[in-house]
Amino acid sequence: MAIDILSIGEAMVEFNAAGPAAEGATYVQGYGGDSSNAAIAAARQGASVGYISAVGADLFGESLLALWAREGVDSQNVKRDPSAPTGIYFVTHGPAGHSFTYYRRGSAASRMTPADVSEHAIAGARILHASGISQAIGKSAEATVTHAIELAKKHRVKVSYDTNLRLQLWPIERARKVIHASIARADIALPSIEDARQLTGHDDPDAVVDFYLDLGAPLVVLKLGDQGCLVATATERRRIAGHVVTAVDATGAGDTFCGTFLARIAAGDDPFAAARQANAAAALSTMGYGAVAPIPTRKAVERFLADRQAHAVS
Questions:
Q1: 101-129 confidence digits (pLDDT tens)
Q2: Is 269 within 8 Å of 8 (Cβ atoms)?
C-alpha cells in the first residue's frame, strides 16, 4: 500500500516566547521545521505520512522521534547521527509579527547525503514534499533533496515544493537558481506571495502564478496569508478566500496550509476544494502559540467551515 505523502527536510525543537522577550519571557518548548510541520498537518488531516530526515543522537532527537510516533508519522527513514546535533530555534513576537533565531549550523539534517534517501521509500509514496529550506541548510542537504526529487520523477511520484525562502541561509541569487530549478520539476508549486516577490520580482498574484506555470509546474497554489490563496492551472484559476480570526502566532501557518492541501489532494479532492480546507486549517493554526501545537485536526477544520457557512447563511 502506497503512503500518501513523504516529506523531506529538517525538523527542529522550538522554544517559543510566551511574552515579550525583553521582559524575560518564559519560553515554551515545542517543535518545528517546515517539512515536519507539513507532515504533521497532513497526518492530522488523515493522510498516511512518512518523513526523511536526520536528527542527533541527543535528547532533542529522541523528543522528535517521540513526536512523530504520537502523530502517526512514519520515521523509519529518519537517520540518527551521533556526531551532529539536532537543530533548535527560538521564536519571539512583536508589533511586526514573529521572528526567529536559529541554532542549526552543522545539524544532523544539514549533513544528510543522497545515500540517506531510500529509493524504495520514495517509489512507495504518492507525493514527495520538499522545500527551499530543505535545500538551503547545507550543500549536502541540497544535493540530497535534489536527488530525492529525481527519484520521485523516475518513479512517477508527484513532487510538491514549497519555496519557503530564508535569506539568512543562502543568497538570493543562489536561492532563485535552486528553487526555480526545483519548481520546474514539481507537479505542485506552493509559493507564498512574500517569497514570490523576492524570487520573481512580481507583485501581482496573477503574474506570479503565470511565472511558475511557465516554469513547468502544472499546478500553482500561491499562498496569500489571511487573504487566502490563488489556485492556478494552465486552463483555470480561482481566488479562494481566507478567514479572519484572532491570530496570535503565524509560525506554522504556511506549513499547515501545505500539509492540509496535500492531504486533501491525496484524498481525491480537486485543488480548489483542497485549498478551501487548507485556508481554514492555516487560519486555525494561528490561534495558538508554536508551529505544531495549534495545527488542527480534520474534524476541527470541518467544524470551523461548517460554523462559517452557518453564519454566512444566517
A1: 899 999 999 999 999 999 999 999 999 99
A2: no
Return the SS3 of 184: helix
H or E element at residue 271: helix 271-285
- Assess contact for 61 and 297: CB atoms under 8 A: no
Tell me: the pLDDT tens digits for 160-185? 999 999 999 999 999 999 999 999 99
Whether 162 contacts 131, CB under 8 Å: yes
List Cβ neighbours of 172 (8 Å cut-off, separation of 6 or more).
198, 199
pLDDT at residue number 22: 61
Q: Counting beta carbons within 10 angstroms of the beta carbon of residue 143, is it exposed (0 to 12), middle (13 to 18) or buried (19 or more)?
A: middle
The pLDDT of residue 21 is above 70: no
CA distance 288 to 246: 9
| Average pLDDT of every residue of the chain | 94
Domains along the chain?
A: 3-9+34-84+114-313 (3.40.1190.20)
- Model pLDDT, residue 311: 72
For residue 304, give the C-alpha cell: 470551523
Burial class (CB in 10 A: 0-12, 13-18, 19+), 288: middle
Cα 178 to chain centroid distance, Å, stands at 17
pLDDT at 267: 97
The angle, 0 to 180 degrees and rounded to 10, between the axes of the packed helices 253-266 and 271-285 is: 150
Contact criterion met (CB below 8 Å) for 247 and 286: yes
pLDDT per position as a tens digit, 35-82: 999 999 999 999 999 999 999 999 999 999 999 999 999 999 999 999
Burial bucket for residue 247 (CB in 10 Å: 0-12, 13-18, 19+): middle
Q: What are phi and psi of 124, to 5 degrees?
A: -90, 5
Longest dimension (CA), the chain: 60
Q: Which helix (H) or strand (E) holds 164?
A: none
φ and ψ of 193, to 5 deg: -65, -35
Alpha carbon of residue 70 to chain centroid: 19
